Amino acid sequence: MNKPMIQIALDQTDLTSALKVATSVASYVDVIEVGTILAFAEGMQAVRQLRQNHPDHILVCDMKTTDGGAILAELAFSAGADWITVSAAAHIATVAACKKVADQFNGEIQIELYGHWTMEDAKSWRDIGIKQAIYHRSRDAELAGIGWTEQDLDKMKMLSDLGFELSITGGITPDDISLFAGIKTKTFIAGRALAGEKGAETAAVLRKKINQYW
Amino acid sequence: MNKPMIQIALDQTDLTSALKVATSVASYVDVIEVGTILAFAEGMQAVRQLRQNHPDHILVCDMKTTDGGAILAELAFSAGADWITVSAAAHIATVAACKKVADQFNGEIQIELYGHWTMEDAKSWRDIGIKQAIYHRSRDAELAGIGWTEQDLDKMKMLSDLGFELSITGGITPDDISLFAGIKTKTFIAGRALAGEKGAETAAVLRKKINQYW
Lengths: 214, 214
Hints:
The structure is a homodimer of 214-residue chains. Chain A has one domain (5-213): Aldolase class I (TIM Barrel), CATH 3.20.20.70. Helices cover 45% and strands 21% of the residues of chain A. Chain A has helices spanning 15-25, 36-42, 45-53, 69-79, 92-104, 119-127, 139-143, 150-162, 192-195, 199-213, and strands at residues 5-10, 31-34, 58-65, 83-87, 108-112, 132-136, 165-169, 185-190. Chain A has an 8-stranded parallel barrel, surrounded by 7 helices. In chain A, helix 4 (69-79) packs parallel to helix 5. The first copy, chain A, is globular, with a radius of gyration of 16 Å. The termini of chain A are close together. Chains A and B meet through helix 2, helix 4, helix 5 and helix 7 of A and helix 2, helix 4, helix 5 and helix 7 of B.
């Protein structure tokens, strides 16, 4: 099993701040994400500028695409994204439209697991060639105090067994890492925890835990 | 029952083209929508500029918010939006976070009905004070040839009976209008059909049909 990577989510509301954070964390993260907030605040110039500044990082655009798949995918991939996210609530035709554009750019699609998605949905994503999904506590659910449950872990294992590589997010701390042992994990995603004064230190502790369990 | 309004969805990938379309249709539409595509392409400057150009129109920002509700809502409302959209797949805490910000701006939330949402979800949205929802064929489903079904109309009636005002979209033609008679309809949404050479004419035919059925 490949070792999970570390991903920073940039959710600043202005590009200048986001670029500063990206520069400060680039040496210790593998994947840089233009978060939905940053993408809506500043548009695709955020993707273009981060691509230019960080040519060797994997760059994700977190659009949570729900419709208009071909055009949104074209916008993000042509701006320099390697991966884009598509909502689990999107019609399968939308997922397929995004996949087709991704293939043209050698990009990848990540399904964002929100709402009442089912394992049937997961099989239909897999059947059209989708290889990644993102599992998380929602930011707002997290604020409401809802933690990682057995049910979460069971679903992750089922997705992993179906062949999906999972990116995991939602207030991840180094102590959480052991929970996910045995799951095909693509990245662990964090924002503020990696960006602050103690960001490098947090990343180092995450790597140590990753090396312990993968 | 109030008469449905007519809404243009601006899904251009650059602001200059979108502003031109908005100016050309402003005299015969009631609601101007910054579509998801335009919002991701150009960011919140699209909302700010359209607000400035069209101070008397209702302005919608179609974010299909799925997480990070408070920050996204603040971005769009502070840029001048009157309404924002929130995905049916969002956690109820996210919907509530958006509603709270909307109330501070005298704005409104529209639930975008994608994915496996249920009438239980609809009741929970209503219970926190949400009054609008958007019902549509997905753009990609439409391209795949999936039309308005009895099931669609039944669900719309149930939502209308729960008290929701619906905006209806997805390749609407004047001949479709009669299908929705008896449903509390807030707006009919179209893009290219209202924007082209025959846009004014299409809008006039839509109004005539609306006057016939509401």
